[in-house]
């Protein structure tokens, strides 16, 4: 099957190649004229696929005339896969940046836009600047989807400016930027604040990094702080009283922790409650879960750092600081409590989205990377994209040596350093890879001890990193880096290095197979010589965290033998590879669960955004407002079976007015007459408000803001509820049989309630708000 797909790609390649001579013969003007021609063909009903050969041949020739680079056949093949909405596996250094020019141009011809997403701003800007001349020469517009001048970073970008970015035919940006812009775009209170147009086509560069490694942390836009609970502190104290195994247990992978029956009783004593799992004690239970995770799963230096009195979450696989990670679930605060630093304010989530659902909004999604084949099943299941391997232009002659396995970290590192010295003496450039920021510093110290000059990259400064990585291929260069550091930057070999054997990648830690391949691939690009070797110890975090009981026993037996040799047993190698498989399987299933939950959220989010857009676009809101008011009043009245005059007064003072109320003496306490009375009351109050406003347009704006705010407030509550629900409904949690089902059922019930709450909230917003006009007669609404 795979063979067949590649064959199909080659067929199309031939049609592109057949046009090469024709394109070469064209004058510059004629070549530029192809854009108009192709657009006309599209307009006349030809499909994207039909015009592909001509479009690709055009870009190819333009790439050559403007940049002096003529895309190789393998690049055109990659480009064809990208247009299919699939993933092209192309090794590092094969020229993915240039490859993307073809599908971006082709898919932008329809006028609906095309985007390329890179792992960071630096790469997006680099690629955009390199390729802008080609696109502009061909008559297309191009932009970066973010502000380039870093000096103005803190200034808010005006919607009009963003609109201009996103209106460009081709946009280079990051998935993070896009996710946040999408969320803010949908939080706007009127159309002028919006800037996105419907998503059309996207290429995700380094697609595995974005879709697999980062897929589990949703992007979150936070809003007003909510009340801080002192349960963090209590739960933290409680956790200090617990004993491992007796009160709580961890799963083998140390990714989950839960209370034992004994621990549950302990909690009930500590918090003086009868039943920890009673709905009334949900918050207590949640805080205990958080404190347990903060103490027994999150590790300082690996999962987070404490610096300057602040807790910063780290992305474990690459040592980078995590951006936009949810502070709403409270894990952050639980860690702060554990580390005894000041608690950050809890924020309400105003909007959130994960990558899978963000990309679900595009007509066509494609990706490229050097290391995706091993995860092709997941890409297909989750994203319906196929992975197609593109052959390298030249044969890969890099030598990947088998792992060397040691018992202890010390042995492993000293052996790795020994090889480093040996290769360094030959003058070969070396990339030493550390598994965490902490370890990169230890390695750096060891090198200093040996008097070897080197650079350390720990993924804090992306631009500086790229500069250093560029030079990592020079003779005698030694570069220490964490996994992700400098990804996307090509390491070109310096003078005389080919003769010496090229770049040597030396890994110093057990890492997931995909990450290993990615790292090895930094050497031996474009047919260069090179090598890779990984040094592993049984103390490595990855192993310690993921190994089975049996493995641990085996490890202890080895320890007794006090061996410091390279461990070669077949059994050990098998165990390690099984361990790797198991971890990938676990990660896959946790991504799957998040995806499942996100799917429920996505349906709700779409529904909500649709409602919002309706409200935003409706020219007259009087009727809708009347309906919301009437429904809101009914909902309030349905809270009680029978009403006394006092009850009515209390209700009104909470939700309708702060003034003293004189109820009419003859008011009947039936729901019909109460409803009638309240509706009239609201009507009169709104009429008074209207008199303060300049015109009916302003009145409309007041209605709009009140209803939108009501919707948003209830949506925020809903999302806070969902993320708490996610914490509570976990597969390892107590006796729940099917957590996914429970989550989705509860999520749906809550969503239905949400719209009711929104209507009640709308009553409050319309009635209790105060309005005023500023000196330019602009409307200002204060909600209470
Ligand atoms: P990748 O992203 O696949 O790792 P890059 O896009 O960074 O690779 O390209 C690697 C290098 O190869 C760059 O310096 C680029 O300019 C060069 N390159 C790419 N395609 C061509 C080509 N067709 N002809 C000449 N040089 C090329
Ligand atoms: Mg690249």
TrEMBL record:
Cell location: Cell membrane; Cytoplasm; Membrane
Membrane topology listed for this record: Peripheral membrane protein
Species name: Limosilactobacillus walteri
Full protein name: Protein translocase subunit SecA
Residue ranges annotated for the Helicase C-terminal domain, each copy included: 408-573
Domain (Helicase ATP-binding) ranges: 77-243
Residues involved in ATP binding: 75, 93-97, 490
Family: Belongs to the SecA family.
Pfam families linked: P-loop_SecA, SecA_DEAD, SecA_PP_bind, SecA_SW
Keyword Transport belongs to the record: yes
Quaternary organization: Monomer and homodimer. Part of the essential Sec protein translocation apparatus which comprises SecA, SecYEG and auxiliary proteins SecDF. Other proteins may also be involved.
UniProt keywords, alphabetically: ATP-binding, Cell membrane, Cytoplasm, Membrane, Nucleotide-binding, Protein transport, Translocase, Translocation, Transport
Domain SecA family profile: 1-567
Catalytic activity, EC: 7.4.2.8
Subcellular location, principal: membrane
SUPFAM superfamilies found in the cross-reference section: Helical scaffold and wing domains of SecA, P-loop containing nucleoside triphosphate hydrolases, Pre-protein crosslinking domain of SecA
Reaction equations catalysed: ATP + H2O + cellular proteinSide 1 = ADP + phosphate + cellular proteinSide 2
Gene: secA2
Function, in words: Part of the Sec protein translocase complex. Interacts with the SecYEG preprotein conducting channel. Has a central role in coupling the hydrolysis of ATP to the transfer of proteins into and across the cell membrane, serving as an ATP-driven molecular motor driving the stepwise translocation of polypeptide chains across the membrane.
């Amino acid at each position: 099957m795979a063979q067949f797909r590649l064959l199909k790609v080659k067929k199309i390649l031939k049609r592109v190649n057949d046009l090469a001579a024709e394109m070469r013969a064209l004058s510059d003007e004629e070549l530029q004229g192809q854009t108009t021609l192709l657009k006309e063909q599209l307009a006349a009903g030809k499909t994207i696929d039909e015009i592909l050969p001509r479009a690709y041949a055009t870009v190819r020739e333009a790439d050559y005339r403007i940049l002096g680079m003529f895309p190789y056949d393998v690049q055109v093949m990659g480009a064809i896969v990208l247009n299919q909405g699939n993933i092209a596996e192309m090794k590092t250094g094969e020229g993915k940046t240039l490859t993307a020019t073809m599908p971006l141009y082709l898919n932008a011809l329809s006028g609906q836009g095309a985007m390329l997403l890179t792992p960071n701003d630096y790469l997006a800007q680099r690629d955009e600047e390199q390729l802008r001349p080609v696109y502009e020469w061909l008559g297309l517009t191009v932009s970066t989807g973010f502000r380039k001048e870093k000096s103005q970073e803190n200034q808010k970008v005006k919607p009009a400016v963003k609109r201009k970015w996103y209106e460009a035919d081709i946009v280079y940006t990051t998935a993070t930027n896009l996710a946040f812009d999408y969320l803010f775009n949908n939080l706007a209170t009127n159309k002028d604040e919006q800037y996105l147009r419907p998503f059309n086509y996207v290429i995700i560069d380094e697609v595995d990094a974005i879709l697999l490694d980062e897929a589990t942390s949703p992007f979150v836009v936070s809003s007003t702080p909510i009340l801080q609970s002192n349960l963090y502190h209590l739960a933290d104290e409680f956790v200090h009283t617990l004993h491992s195994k007796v009160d709580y247990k961890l799963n083998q992978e140390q990714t989950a922790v839960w209370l034992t029956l004994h621990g549950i009783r302990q909690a009930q004593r500590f918090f003086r409650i009868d039943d920890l799992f009673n709905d009334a004690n949900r918050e207590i239970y949640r805080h205990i879960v958080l404190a347990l995770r903060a103490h027994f799963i999150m590790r300082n230096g690996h999962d987070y750092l404490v610096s300057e009195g602040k807790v910063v979450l780290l992305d474990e696989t690459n040592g980078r600081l995590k951006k936009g990670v949810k502070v709403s679930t409270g894990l952050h605060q639980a860690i702060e409590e554990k580390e005894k630093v000041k608690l950050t304010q809890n924020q309400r989530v105003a909007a959130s989205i994960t990558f899978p659902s963000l990309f679900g909004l595009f007509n066509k999604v494609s990706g490229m990377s050097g290391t995706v084949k091993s995860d092709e099943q997941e890409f297909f299941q989750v994203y319906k994209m196929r992975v197609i391997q593109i052959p390298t232009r030249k044969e890969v002659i890099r030598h990947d040596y088998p792992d060397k396995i040691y018992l202890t970290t010390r042995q492993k590192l000293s052996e790795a350093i020994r090889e480093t010295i040996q290769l360094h003496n030959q003058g070969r450039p070396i990339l030493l890879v550390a598994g965490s920021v902490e370890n990169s510093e230890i390695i750096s110290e060891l090198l200093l001890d040996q008097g070897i000059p080197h650079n350390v990259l720990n993924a804090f400064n992306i631009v500086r990193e790229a500069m250093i990585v560029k030079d990592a291929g020079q003779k005698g260069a030694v570069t220490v880096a964490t996994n992700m550091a400098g990804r996307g930057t090509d390491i070109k070999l310096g003078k005389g290095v080919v003769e010496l054997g090229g770049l040597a990648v030396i890994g110093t830690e057990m890492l997931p197979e995909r990450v290993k391949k990615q790292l090895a691939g930094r050497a031996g690009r474009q047919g260069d010589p090179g090598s890779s070797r990984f040094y592993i110890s049984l103390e490595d975090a990855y192993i310690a965290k993921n190994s089975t009981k049996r493995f641990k026993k085996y490890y202890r037996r080895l320890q007794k033998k006090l061996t410091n040799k390279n461990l070669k047993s077949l059994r050990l190698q098998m165990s390690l590879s099984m361990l790797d498989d198991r971890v990938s399987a676990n990660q896959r299933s946790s991504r799957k669960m998040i995806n499942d939950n996100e799917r429920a959220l996505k349906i709700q989010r779409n529904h909500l955004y649709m409602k919002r857009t309706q409200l935003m676009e409706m020219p007259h809101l009087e009727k809708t407002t009347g309906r919301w008011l009437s429904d809101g009043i009914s909902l309030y009245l349905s809270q009680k079976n029978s009403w006394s005059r006092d009850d009515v007064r209390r209700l009104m003072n909470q939700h309708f007015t702060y003034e003293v109320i004189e109820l009419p003496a003859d008011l009947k306490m039936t729901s019909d007459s109460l409803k009638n009375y309240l509706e009239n009351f609201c009507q009169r109050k709104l009429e008074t408000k209207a008199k303060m406003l300049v015109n009916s347009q302003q009145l409309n704006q007041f209605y709009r803001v009140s209803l939108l705010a009501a919707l948003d407030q209830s949506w925020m509550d809903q999302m806070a509820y969902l993320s708490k629900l996610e914490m509570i409904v976990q597969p390892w949690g107590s006796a729940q049989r099917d957590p996914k089902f429970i989550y989705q059922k509860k999520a749906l019930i809550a969503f239905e309630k949400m719209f009711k709450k929104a209507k009640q909230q709308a009553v409050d917003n319309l009635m209790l708000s105060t309005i005023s006009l500023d000196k330019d007669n602009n409307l200002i609404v204060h909600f209470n």
